[in-house]
Amino acid sequence: MLEKPILVIKGVAYVASFLLALLSRSLAFRLHVLMSSSKPPADGKPRNIVIIGASIAGYHAARTITSFLPPNSGLRVVVVEPRDHFHFTWVLPRFCVVEGHEHKAFIPYHGYLPRGALDEGKDGAPAKVAWVKDRVASISKDSVRLESSGEEVPYEFLIVATGAGATDSLPSRVPSTDKTEGLELLRQMQGRIREAQHLVVVGGGAAGVELATDAKSKYPEKHVVLVHSRNAVMHRFGPKLRDAAKKGIEELGIELITQDRVVGEEKEKGVAVLKSGREVKCDYLVNCTGQRPDSRLVAQLSPPSIAATGHILVKPTLQVEDAALPNVYACGDVCETNTAHPNSRSAMRQALVAAFNVLDAAAGRKPKMVYEPHWFDGVIKLTLGLDKSISNVGDGNTEFLFPTKEKDVALMAKGAWKKLGARPFEDDDSFLSRIRAKI
Questions:
Q1: Residues 6 or more apart from 44 whose CB is under 8 A from it?
Q2: Coil, strand or helix: which one is 212?
Q3: 0.85 exceeded by the pTM?
Q4: Which helix or strand (DSSP H or E) is residue 198 part of?
Q5: Beta strand pairing status for 75-80 and 335-336?
Q6: pLDDT by residue (tens digit) across 247-270?
Q7: At what angle do helices 206-218 and 239-251 cross, to 10 degrees?
């Protein structure tokens, strides 16, 4: 009877404790900045803190470090990111189905950084942040090599925030670094779903459930089939969410096939072939399966630092486990942190840990902040059609749901734009004129 109130109290206590700890940490660093008597490097060259990737973990790490850089320290944040906009991936399943909102998934960069971070200082001093639109081809113990220019960028500290993707394609990720091309890919998928009479969705995680229920909600005349290899959709979560998701799927009239897999597609016959041998009518198949961490850069430098899952092995301080790489950190979905349900909350907490530890190390102090997974980070909001969603809170023992009627077809896009310092939904591309092809 008291389980739910106790869980709520635990959640509130955790949030309060986290905010107090963050405030204490921030004030300590702010005081350090005010009292800093750093002198610029004698050679005048910036001391680079390179961050690879600017999804939520890398972007938040860049914001945090830049906010607390001591004056005259010579430290500079170098962000290497190939995309021209931040991709708000949570809304992608919805925008693969619903037309006219796809531009809201592409949020302009730079608004989340501290004001003036990209501006040069007095007397031509380097800006606090250098933003490079490129990929990193390889890393060494003290530099990264850019893919397009081949330039070697030295670093004192490196944060790898390259993330993970379901298939690196829609509806989980936009397989393009260019907004214009990304918009076109989303519109093409909208058209394919609109025209399909027999839609097969593979994968019963959040992306698969949301796309299938959105498609059936918008086009009730379609035959939609959801195929999942496990015995229940949303199988990583508690029984209440699993049952609620199944109920929502069945109420919409979606055919749910569990404990089977799609092993092929015979387009001439118009069928998807299952492992069981069953053939399912299909004129458009959408794959929403798997998670693949993008850890290849660290794998090349330090193969023992990669887990069997492909994730980067890290210490609680989020330093890479390799003792020979004390100045290399990782955060977000790319690293192994025993986080049950990785999402933006856990990624941002990890970014804070990596950022504060880099700042400590840059000042000659031992990195001491640690990341500990917490069940509260796993709170999830799952849509079950265009006007219905369920939020799930659970600590592994107790679980409860908050059903909600959705009024905004664009979901939380507006809030995400504001959170990242952008005015919804205005994009003048001014940031693109300030980024670089090389340092």
A1: none
A2: helix
A3: yes
A4: strand 198-202
A5: unpaired
A6: 999 999 999 999 999 999 999 999
A7: 20
Q: Pairing state of beta strands 262-266 and 271-274? A: antiparallel
- Distance, in Å, from the CA atom of 210 to the CA atom of 286, rounded to the nearest integer, reads 12
**CA separation for the pair 318, 221 (Å, rounded):** 50
What letter represents residue 392's amino acid?
N
DSSP assignment string, 14-36: HHHHHHHHHHHHHHHHHHHHHH-
* Angle between helix 3-35 and helix 344-362 axes, rounded to 10 deg: 30
Q: What angle do CA 56, 163, 392 make, to 5 degrees?
A: 65
Return the exposure string of 364-391: e unless at least 16 CB atoms fall within 10 Å of the residue's CB, then b.
eeebebebebbbbbbebebbbbbebbbe
pLDDT of residue 238: 94
SS3 call for 316 = coil
How far, in Å, CA of 90 to CA of 104, rounded?
A: 11
* Preceding omega of 425 cis (within 30 degrees of 0): yes
pLDDT at 74 over 70: yes
CA angle 268, 269, 270 (to 5 degrees): 95
- Give first-to-last CA distance, the chain, whole Å: 60
Question: Alpha-carbon distance 39 to 41, whole Å?
Answer: 6
Render 87-142 in DSSP notation, one character per residue: E-GGGHHHHTTSSS-GGGGEEPSSTTSPTTTTS--GGGPPPSEEEE-S-EEEE-SS
Coil, strand or helix: which one is 31?
helix
DSSP string, 68-89: TPPTTS-EEEEEE---SSEE-G
- Of 184, 251, 238, nearest to 212 (Cα)? 251
Phi, psi of 403 (to 5 degrees): -70, 145
**Which residues lie across from 107 on neighbouring strands?**
86
Do 222 and 368 form a contact (C-beta atoms < 8 A)? no
Phi, psi of 198 (to 5 degrees): -125, 100
Average pLDDT over residues 222-227: 98
Are 272 and 282 contacting, i.e. CB atoms less than 8 angstroms apart? yes
Asked whether 206 and 382 are in contact (CB, 8 A), the reply is yes
Cβ 314 vs Cβ 337: under 8 Å: yes
Inter-residue contact 264 to 254 (CB < 8 Å): no
Strands 292-293 and 164-165: antiparallel
- C-alpha 354, offset from chain centre: 16
Residue 435 reports pLDDT greater than 80: no
Average pLDDT over residues 35-50: 75
Give dist(CA 266, CA 288) in Å, integer. Answer: 19
HSE (CB half, 13 Å, CA atoms) of 199?
31
